[in-house]
Design a protein that fits this description.
Helices cover 24% and strands 27% of the residues. The chain has 245 residues and is α+β, with helices and mostly antiparallel strands. The chain folds into three domains: 61 residues, Structural Genomics Hypothetical 15.5 Kd Protein In mrcA-pckA Intergenic Region, Chain A, CATH 3.10.290.10; 89 residues, Alpha-Beta Plaits (2-Layer Sandwich), CATH 3.30.70.580; 76 residues, Pseudouridine synthase. Strands 7, 8, 9, 10, 13, 14, 15, 16 and 17 form a nine-stranded mixed beta sheet that branches. Strand 8 and strand 9 form a beta hairpin.
Length: 245
């Protein structure tokens, strides 16, 4: 007979798979129902099946382990690519955070090599899917430095919406940050590739600096460039409950 301690230590199989960084819980359900997951050598297709810490879970015949969920924020410096390894042998963000914890963590989305700022890492497959799926459109704020002054008319056009090669886009909020008219703050929800750079390139500007200062309820305030830290419980609560725009 299963005792109360055993019940408290069990984990739903789909959550176990998601915690291992394989995929989201919903996708894990599909893997389970298709017979690709086994527990202690027995194929499991039952939804809601629970596993013990001592159970051996395999996906496509390969043993997987549910690691402790880890959530880390990096203030990414310029000159690093957002990949696990790079065939061109360029510096990657993993060179900075590779020894942060024993768990395998991965970047959530990406920033261009020359873009700096807030980059989240985790081994939580479900949260990664939630934050990167196009339908979620999480709020992002960037500070942009241009090669020459912009006009108020151009800023107004970006606020109202412009047409790019892959469709229309507009800023949720946009404003000058100083009297040089070269430094601009832009709030946007779109996750389209290089979208902020392309917005300003549309008007003939060259983006000298692009810094992400806010992402999905998180801010990199007081985190020096090139440094990282683990999220606080308060930040994690905001991130997981989605109580932000």
């Amino acid at each position: 007979m299963e005792n109360q301690d055993d019940k408290q230590n069990t984990t739903r199989l789909n959550k176990y798979i998601a915690n291992a960084g394989i995929c989201s819980r919903r996708e894990a359900d599909k893997l389970i129902s298709s017979g690709k997951v086994s527990v202690n050598g027995k194929t499991i297709t039952e939804m809601g099946f629970k596993v013990m810490p001592t159970d051996q879970v395999s996906y496509k015949g390969k043993l997987i382990r549910a690691e402790k969920p880890v959530y880390l924020m990096l203030n990414k410096p310029k000159g690093y690519v957002t990949t696990l390894d790079d065939p061109q042998n360029r510096k990657t963000v993993m060179d900075i955070i590779g020894n942060a914890c024993p768990e395998r963590i991965y970047p959530v989305g990406r920033l261009d090599m020359d873009t700096t700022g807030l980059l989240l890492f985790t081994n939580d497959g479900e949260l990664t899917k939630q934050l990167t799926h196009p339908s979620y459109n999480k709020k992002k704020i960037y500070h942009v430095e241009l090669d020459m002054p912009a006009s108020q008319d151009q800023i107004d056009k970006i606020a109202k919406g412009i047409q790019l090669e892959d469709g229309p886009i507009k800023a949720d909020e946009i404003a000058f940050l100083d009297n040089s008219y070269k430094t601009i703050g832009i709030e946007i929800h779109s996750g389209r590739n290089r979208i902020v750079r392309r917005i300003f390139e549309h008007f003939g500007f060259i983006v000298i600096k692009l810094d992400r200062v806010y992402f999905a309820g998180l801010t990199k305030k007081n985190l020096p460039r090139g440094k990282y830290r683990f999220l606080t419980q308060k930040e994690l609560s905001v991130l997981k409950t989605g109580k932000y725009e």
